[in-house]
């Protein structure tokens, strides 16, 4: 049913990212799908010495700690606003499922919208949203 699953990962939020990755791996195993784990970073960091690719070792280390046996996993870094980068990466790689998390909304999310709500309404593929409590 799904061949390529995009999973946006925030290694700094390991607890929620681990749960998200476990769900994605479970789906991928059942469908023999590939996972693309992506971390979205700002185009320009507050520390100008940090380049976007400097985040890749952290993402690779996070994925290495997960039980992904039997599942092909690619990792990559993308820059920009998370909501747009997630949908454009899914389109670029022909992903047919995005698995992402959503926290309890804050008041600003009602006014401007959350990343998850943008992805759900703008993605060209299926979206599976994992509710994160206490984020």
UniProtKB/TrEMBL annotation:
Domain of life, source organism: Bacteria
InterPro entries associated with the record: Rossmann-like_a/b/a_fold, Universal_stress_UspA, UspA
Sequence ranges assigned to domain UspA in this UniProt record: 1-131
Coiled coil: none
Pfam families found in the cross-reference section: Usp (PF00582)
Protein family per UniProt: Belongs to the universal stress protein A family.
Name of this protein: Universal stress protein F
Organism field: Allosediminivita pacifica
Organism taxonomic ancestry: Bacteria, Pseudomonadati, Pseudomonadota, Alphaproteobacteria, Rhodobacterales
């Amino acid at each position: 049913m799904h061949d390529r699953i995009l999973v946006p990962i925030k290694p700094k939020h390991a607890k929620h990212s681990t749960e998200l990755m476990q769900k994605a791996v479970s789906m991928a195993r059942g469908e023999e799908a590939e996972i693309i784990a992506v971390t979205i970073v700002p185009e320009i960091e507050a520390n100008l010495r940090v380049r976007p690719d400097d985040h890749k070792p952290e993402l690779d280390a996070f994925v290495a700690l997960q039980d992904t046996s039997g599942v092909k996993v690619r990792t990559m870094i993308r820059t920009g606003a998370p909501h747009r980068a997630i949908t454009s990466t899914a389109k670029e790689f022909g992903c047919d499922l995005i698995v992402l998390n959503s926290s309890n909304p804050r008041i600003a999310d009602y006014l401007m919208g959350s990343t998850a709500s943008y992805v759900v309404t703008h993605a060209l593929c299926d979206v599976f949203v994992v509710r994160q409590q206490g984020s």
